[in-house]
Amino acid sequence: MDIDDSPSIQRLIDRLPTSEAARSELLSHASQRLECLTRKMLRDYPGVHRWEQTDDVLQNASLRLYRALSEVALPSPRDFFRLAAAIIRRELIDLARHYSGPFGVGANHASVVGKDWHGDSLPGSENTYDPSRLAEWTDFHAQVEALADEDRAVVDLLFYQGMSQSEAAVVLNVSERTVKRRWQSARLALHQALGGRLPGT
Asked: Which residue, 64, 114, 126, 160, is most buried by CB atoms nearer than 10 A?
């Protein structure tokens, strides 16, 4: 899904109320971006990645998006991109809670990693399946959800959608300077809300 594709996305959005095909086509557009974002973001969730593959997470997010497209009015591509980002965020939060909770599969299961079927172990990995790391990312996504609408829109496009600041400015119909200002405001708000500690640091 390219930013230059916004006019065709708008045409599909306009057809949503009357066309099931438009919903499927719009989902197809989103699935390409969702796959890329899911793969990227899943790397930050080793405890989730341990149990779920990219395609599994993508399927869940796509189902959520498909249902949402029948329930939510989307006036513009900006709203479509924001919806897709919110769905990724919610899916990751739900999976992190599922696997890292006190009764979660990930909290009560130890896996033995071996180099062959005879059980000879490999050297320790730097990847930990630390529930606190999952909790940090869960808190991060929840704090993004709590941002002011304008700041959250910029985070959705830059962080979750992977757009450049100039692409985000086109989608939001604002200047690039405004995007930069909102991005800085969002980062500052997240820094304060998270006590100066970002996930993975």
From this structure: 160
What DSSP assignment string belongs to 141-156?
A: HHHHHTS-HHHHHHHI
What is the spatial distance between Cα 18 and Cα 15, in angstroms, rounded to a whole number? 6
* Token output for 154: 């910029």
d(CA 29, CA 9): 8
pTM of the model: 0.64
Contact indicator for 68, 85 with CB cutoff of 8 Å: no
Sketch the domain layout of the chain as residue ranges.
Answer: 3-106+130-193
Chain centroid to CA 56: 14
In this predicted model, what pLDDT tens digit does every residue of 169-199 receive, in sequence order?
Answer: 988 899 999 999 999 999 999 999 988 887 7
For the record, the structure tokens of 133 come out as 């790391």
